[in-house]
Predict the 3D structure of the following.
Amino acid sequence: MKQDKIRNFCIIAHIDHGKSTLADRILEKTHTLSERDMSEQVLDSMDLERERGITIKLQAVRLAYTASSGEEYTLNLIDTPGHVDFSYEVSRSLAACEGALLVIDASQGIEAQTLANLYLALEHDLEIIPVINKIDLPSADPQRVMNELEESLGLDASEAILTSAKTGQGIDDILEAIVKRVPAPGGNEENPLQAMIFDSHFDVYRGAVAYIRVMEGRLSVGDKIKMMATGRTFEVSELGVFRPAMVSVSSLGPGEVGCVIASMKDVKDTRVGDTITLSRRPAPNSLAGYRPAKPMVFCGLYPVDNEQYQDLRDALDRLQLNDAALSYEPETSAALGFGYRCGFLGLLHMEIIQERLEREFKLNLITTAPSVEYHIHMNNGSEVSIDNPSSLPKVIDIDFIEEPFVMATIMVPEEFVGPVMELCQDKRGIFSNMEYITTERTRLDYELPLSEILMDFFDRLKSRTKGYASLDYELMGYRRSEMVKLDILLNGKAVDALSCIVHREKAQARGRNLTEKLKEVIPRQQYEVPIQAAIGSKVIARETVRALRKDVLAKCYGGDISRKRKLLEKQKEGKKRMKSLGTIDVPQEAFMAILEVD
Amino acid sequence: MQTMAEKGIYVHVPFCARKCQYCDFHSVVADETFVGSYFDAFEQELLVRSREAAADSFDTLFIGGGTPSILTISRLDRLLRMLTSSFTFSSSAEITVEVNPSSLSLAKLRCLRSWGVNRLSMGVQSFEPNLLEALGRLHTVEQVFQSLRSARQVGFDNISMDLMFGLPDQTMAQWQATLATAVQLGIQHLSAYALILEEATPFYRWAQQGLLALPDEDTEACMFETTMQYLPDHGMPQYEISNYARLGCESQHNMLYWTGKPYLALGSGAAGYWRGRRYVNTKDMALYVSGWQNHAATETLELEEFPNRYQQMDEYMMTGMRLLRGIHGPTFAKRFGMAISEAYPAQLQRLLERNLVQWTADGYLQLTYAGRVLGNHVFSAWLR
Ligand SMILES: Nc1nc2c(ncn2[C@@H]2O[C@H](COP(=O)(O)OP(=O)(O)OP(=O)(O)O)[C@@H](O)[C@H]2O)c(=O)[nH]1
Ligand code: SF4
Ligand SMILES: [Mg+2]
C-alpha cells in the first residue's frame, strides 16, 4: 500500500450530533459493509452502546475509497464518543490521525463539547474539516451555525461541508475533502519500528489485543517485538485491520492502523500509550505517549457476595485494558468488606464501568457514594489527599480543607443566561467570563466546585434551559472550602460507605434531604430502622423506616409448586442488588441517594 | 392429626359462571358445547393417567377450579363415577369438591355425597354484601347460610370456607366480624387469603388508576395477625400459613403439597408431581382438547421438570416451612442424606439470627411468630 494514499481521520463532535450515523453513511459509500450487515450506528457494537444510543468506545475501521480522480485510497476512520466522560477516548484517537471531521448539528449549533473537542484536535495539529450535519431537519439553520463557526471557533465557514447523515447528502463531499485536505501520514518504512498503542482489549483465547498506529518502520507477523515501557518481548502471531471485524494482514507499515496479537497473556503486558518496537532493532526512544487520564470521581466497588472479591479483581484488570481511564486500588469498608476504590472521569463513566463489570464478568456489585478528591492540610503542616470520606482525619487535627474546582463552560441561548447564572451561584460558583457569540449562543464560564457538578447540576441545568444548555468542564485546581463530613447512621451505627463530605453551609439541608431520600429507598425491614445524619457527634436529621409487617399469603394454585417457586425466585432476584449491613438490607440506590439531594 | 395421606389426585375444572374481578386463576366462562368437548378430552386424559396409576391407592381427591359446582348434576355424576371407578382410593380417603354458594342445590349436594365426597371447600370470601359485590362474586350472604344448611342436611360434616382480607374499603372491624361469623357457623376448616393484585385482572388496572381504596400494608398485616390470634382462640388452630382447622380436620390434600408427596393432576392447567416429575397441563383449552380428543392421547404441557436432588430439597424446605409445626429435622436428613444445617448452613444461620425460624425440642424447624408474617423471606431463603 502506498503511504501517500493513506488518510487517517477521526470523527469528533458534541454528544448526539451524529458522528456514528455519519460513519454509517461513510461505510456504505465505501462498500465496507454489505447491506445485510448494516444497521444504525453499526460501530456502536457494545450492547450498552446500543441500549443507550451513545458511543462509549472509540472504534476504528479501515475503508477502501476510489476518489473522483480515479485513485484508490485507504482511509482509516475512528468514531469517537461525544460525552465528556469519555473524552480520554477522543484524545487517544486524535493521536492516531492526521485529520478530524468536526461534526456540528445544524439545528443545535456549537455546544460545549464542540469547543472542547476542537481544542483537543488543534493541540494535536490535526487538519479540521467542519461538517454541518442534520441539514434535513426542519429546524436546521446552517447559516447560523456557519456564523458561529467563524465567531467562536475561528474556522473558515466556507470550508464547512453541509451534510445529512440521515439522507446521505454531502457524504461524497466529505470523502473528497478527506482525500484532498487531510495530509498523508509521515514516517519512514526504513526506520526502526515505533508503533503507538492507542487501545486494547482482552480476548479469552488470544490474550491482550493491542490496537496500534504505526508511526515509523514496519511490523510483520513473526517479528519479535518489545514493549518500550515494560521491556517485555513477544512474538507477533497475528496482525489485523478492522473492516470493522478483524481481518488478518501480514504486515503494517507507517501510517497504518491495526491490531497486534502476540500471546500477551498478562494484562499488564500491554499499556495504552506505550510504544512497540522490534527487539532486534529497537527505536532509540519511545513516542510521547498519552497524558494519563486524571480521575475526577471516586467510589468503592464491592461485590454483593463477598466471595466474588477475587473475580472482581480479575475483571478490573481485564476491563482496564479496554478502558484506559479506569483506575483502582484495594480498599476495605467496615460496612461492606473488601472491595476496590475506583477512579472515573465522571458519573456516566462510573455507571458504565459498573454495568460492564456486571454484564461482561457476571458480577453483582454495589457502588458506594461517589466522592471527589480533597486535599487535607493538617495542623502539623503536612498534607494528605483523600478520595474516601471515611478516611478524613480527625477534625481537631485538620487545619483546613481544599476541594477541587473546575472551569465550566456553558453554552446557552441568551434568554436562559439569567437562570443559569442563578444556578451557578447556588452551586457556589464564581463567575469568570461571559461571551455573546450570536443571539442564539452565549458562552458562560464559571469556576465551580467539582463536587457540585457531580450532584444534580446537569439535570438542573437542562430543566432550567429547556434542554438547550450544554456543559463542559476541566479541572482547574484546588480551593480552600469550609467542608465537613456528614455521617449517616443506620440503626445507630455509622455506615462508612454512606458518609459524604459537604460544604458546611449546606450540611443541614443535605442531611435532612438525604435522610428523607434514604427513607424512601431503604425497604421496610423486620425491625424499625432509624436513619440519622450527623456531623461529628451532633445528629442533624432523623427519619425512621417503619418495620415490615407482612410479605406473605397469596392463595396457592392447587399444588403448582413450580409457579410458587418462580414467584419467590423473582422476589428474591429483586433483593439481589441489596447489601446486608448487619441485619439491614440496603439497596444500591441508597448509596447513590447523595447525588439526588440538594 | 390423622394418619398422613401419601398420594393424591387433583382435578381442575376450569369453568366459572362469571369471572371475579380479582381472579387470575385458570378458569373461563364457556358454553355447554365447549364444556362437553372439554370433558370428552378430559376423559381421555383420565384413562391415560389412570393407567399410569393402576397399582396405586390414593388417599385424597380434590376437585377444584374454577367452580366445579357449576357443572350440571349429570356431568358431576359422570365425572365422579369415572374418577372413582378408574382410580383406587383408600377407605378413609379425603374427597373434596370446591363449591360456590351460588351454584349449589340439594340435589347437587346429594349427588356429590352419593359418590363419597366427604369434604366441601366453599368459596365464601366475605360476609359483607358490599364487599361481595365489589369482588364480582355471584352469591349473596344469605346463599352462604343456605348452602351450609343444605350441605349439613345431606350429611356433610367437614366443611371448609375461603375468606379474603385486605379488600378495597374493608375495615378491621368488618374483618373481625367476618371471622366471628365463620366461627359461629361451626365449620371445620378455614382458609384466609390476602387479596393479591394480579396483573391482567380488572382489580389490578383499577388499583393502578387509583380507583381502589386498598387498606395499607400495616392494616393488612393487622388483619393477618388478628386472624392468627382469633381463630386459634376459638378452637381453630393455625396449621399452615393461610389455613386453620379444628383438630383432626386439617386438609389432607393440601398437606401432600407441603410435604413433597406425589399427586396426579388432571384437567387443563392442573399441576401434578408424579414419579419425580412436576408437570402442568396446558392452560390453552383448545390445545388441551385437541391434544386429548379422538384418542390422540398426547399430553400438552405448559411445564415439565424433573427436579434434581437439590431442587427437591429446596422445594421441600420452601413448602414444608409453610406448616406451623415445621419440618422434622431427622425426616429431612433421612430423605436427603444430609441434615438441614449441612444443606443450608448460611441461610439457616441467618434466619435463626433474625429470629424468623426456630428449632423445637422435638427436632422441628419451624417459623417463629415473626417468621409467619414475613413468610416469603423464609420460603425463598432456601432457593438456590
Ligand atoms: N434527522 C437527522 N437525524 C440525524 C442525523 N444524523 C444523526 N441523526 C440522529 O441523531 C441521533 C444521534 O446520532 P448518533 O450518530 O448516535 O450521534 P453521535 O454523535 O454518534 O452520538 P455519541 O456517540 O453518543 O456522541 C440519532 O437519533 C440519529 O438518528 C441527520 O443527519 N439527520
Ligand atoms: S369463582 Fe373462583 S375461580 Fe371462578 S372467577 Fe371467581 S375467584 Fe376465579
Ligand atoms: Mg456515536
